[in-house]
Amino acid sequence: MVNKLLKKATDNNFLKELFFIIIYLPAVNFLYRKVYNERIKDKTAKFKLSDLIVSIEPSNTCNAQCIMCPYGKMTRPKEIMPMGLFKKIVDDCWREGVKNFNLNFYNEPFLDPLIFERIKYLESKGVKVKLFSNGSVLSEEKTEELLKSGLDEINFSVDSHIKEVYEKIRKGLDFNIVVSNISYLTERRRELGLNKPRIKVVFVGQKENKTEIKEYKNFWKSKADKIIISFDDNRNNTSEFFDKHKKKKPFPCNKLWAEMNVVSSGKVALCCVDYDAKETLGDFKTQSLREIWNSEKFNEIRKKHLDYRANEVSVCETCVHPHRLNLRSWWKK
């Protein structure tokens, strides 16, 4: 009930900003944290490793330079994860009961020569598989392979329905090619009578596109199963909201109990903000999922979050989520 009310309030931009103003009033903030902390304690006490979504980065190669993404700053070597290591990670997670996998971190998945083999291997385990793509290299041939692979869900990152705006945000990509590729996938899925992959388009709101949401939804409603609107991606220090609230006391991040991010080398990064895997929590080459989860470093970072000291973690210090998303994320089921 609380999550539904908060979601309804924060789906509207005006109500969203009003919510953040009210929640940061000293007396309200004190009471909200007290109530919220009980919810967080309850959720973490019930946590199981099988609850995790495991994101595996098959390769760390992308063909775009999106303005909100720090991909261009990455210093770790470009590499393709060997299929043997990929299977080890999947098998280990599967034995722990993990049922949800995502084939992303900092990559365009369809540049990976083994992507369809990886999807089929995951599908053979009876788990759910999704990925995010910019849609630029999804040729007709790859679309046919994709439809045979068994992929459950594909999320296309498309931040505008206007060519000039899109290409200003997703630098290096051609809007017309992307729309054509997504439309072809939608049409072929319908022609073959398939119900998957579920097709979603994701819009990251920012100053370049924030006035076009209504028109964007109208443009994409016939081409996608779902349209996702999100805001304040601060991975590349582009969030206006973060500048307003970065000095405020942060909230615990539920992503530390929701998702594990494995980069192409097999190492585990802290979260999606940790693009260079500087806060390495473990390495699947030598460790199991359970060993990484129970590591001293991972436990220490989670404790800092639960103590409302996320700003003491270098990666979290510049993240917008503890100041925005995590004000309500723990209410979700």
Structure description:
By secondary structure, the chain is of the alpha/beta class. The chain is 39% helix and 14% strand. The chain contains 13 helices and 11 strands. A 9-stranded mixed β-sheet has the order 8-7-5-4-3-1-9-10-11. Strands 2-6 form a two-stranded antiparallel sheet. The longest helix is centred in the first third of the chain and has 20 residues, at 26-45. The protein is globular. The model has no long low-confidence stretch (mean pLDDT 90).
User: What is the subunit arrangement here?
Assistant: single chain
Q: Largest sheet at a glance? A: 9 strands, mixed
Span of the ends, CA to CA = 10 Å
pLDDT below 50 for ≥5 consecutive residues: which ranges?
Answer: none
The class by helix and strand makeup works out as: alpha/beta
Order of helices and strands: HHHEEHEHEHEHEHEHEHEEEHHH
Q: Roughly what is the average pLDDT, rounded to an integer?
A: 90
What fraction strand? 5-15%
Fraction in helix: 25-40%
Radius of gyration: 20 Å
SS summary, helix count:
13
Number of strands: 11
- List the strand order in the largest sheet: 8-7-5-4-3-1-9-10-11
Principal-axis shape: globular
